[in-house]
Design goal:
Blueprint lengths: L6 E5 L4 H12 L3 E6 L2 H13 L3 E6 L5 H15 L4 E4 L15 H26 L4 E6 L12 H21 L4 E8 L8 H4 L2 H9 L9 H12 L10 E4 L9
Parallel strand pairs: 1-2, 1-4, 2-3, 4-5, 5-6, 6-7
Helix pairs in contact: 1-2, 1-8, 3-4, 4-5
Bound molecules: nicotinamide-adenine-dinucleotide.
């Protein structure tokens, strides 16, 4: 039970990578706070944990609001008395427009969730952890490193997550708080649903991967749990690609 006595918060916990990570932390003995704007999905995640005999609660949270994220952390500490692991994972995909046509309000919406939400999570969780230490994990994307057409808000936000992870690791080192990130490649979750409606397109996207298929959220959650564990005690400030090599080769 590598997370015995630990308390973890996971944002974006109603589906995909977040839900799989809640389950992984709970299996390791953590008490987990599942946070999401989607109450129904978040409560299903908690129910899945309880079915397995684990401990979790759901707190409705909008990570684009600082007040909401601070309240999440306050409630988690109020409920369980401490915070050891913060997984800043909530995110949305990009509206698809050439940069010349990208509506400013749509750009700002993505950045407020994917980028500002991670800042709020680092700030609120870091303050809650500074007496005892802890681990903060941020979800970036391989799209922080390689470009795709028509998705500038997503690129902007995920590039910022990479930079903030490094900067926060430096700021929080004196409190024994590690800050690391993951950069997933194509993972079969809610965020790619819009591509799956077109079977030929989905097959084409999968064929472009190194071994021809999307990853599963559980394959990401295992890496997240490793990064949060004592086995990763000397990992800090870096971002780990979980992409089956997608960012390593020319398409
Ligand atoms: N699936 C992929 O291919 C892929 C690739 C790279 C990065 N990512 C990143 O992984 C993270 C998790 O996404 P996923 O793939 O599991 O997709 P997903 O859509 O299954 O999960 C995202 C979750 O975030 C929640 N969310 C959205 N806005 C929110 C907000 N304002 N406040 C709180 N919760 C909010 C959604 O309700 C959803 O439950 C995201 O940051 C995403 O950008 C995913």
């Amino acid at each position: 039970m590598r997370f015995q006595d630990k308390v973890a918060i996971v944002t974006g916990a109603a589906s995909g990578i977040g839900r799989a990570s809640v389950l992984e932390f709970a299996r390791g003995g953590a008490r987990v706070v599942a946070a999401d704007v989607n109450r129904e999905g978040g409560e299903q995640t908690v129910a899945a944990v309880k079915t397995e005999g684990g401990e979790a609660i759901f707190i409705e949270t909008d990570t684009s609001s600082y007040e909401s994220v601070q309240s999440l952390v306050d409630q988690a500490v109020g409920q369980y008395g401490r915070l050891d692991i913060m997984f800043n994972n909530a995110g949305v995909g990009s509206p698809l427009h050439n940069v010349l046509d990208m509506p400013v309000d749509e750009y700002l919406k993505v950045v407020s969730i994917n980028q500002h939400g991670v800042f709020y999570g680092i700030k609120a969780a870091g303050n809650a952890m500074k007496e005892r230490g802890g681990v903060i994990i941020n979800t970036a994307s391989i799209y922080a490193y390689i470009a795709d057409r028509g998705k500038i808000p997503y690129h902007a936000s995920k590039g910022a997550v990479v930079s903030m992870t490094k900067a926060a690791a430096l700021d929080l080192a004196k409190f024994n708080i590690r800050v690391v990130g993951i950069a997933p490649g194509l993972i079969d979750t809610g965020i790619v649903t819009r591509w799956k409606g077109d079977e030929a397109l989905w097959n084409k996207i999968q064929r472009a991967q190194m071994r021809g298929k999307a990853g599963k959220p559980e394959e990401v959650a295992k890496v997240v749990a490793f990064l949060a564990s004592e086995d990763a005690s000397f990992l800090n400030g870096h971002i780990y690609c979980v992409d089956d090599g997608a960012a390593a080769f020319k398409r």
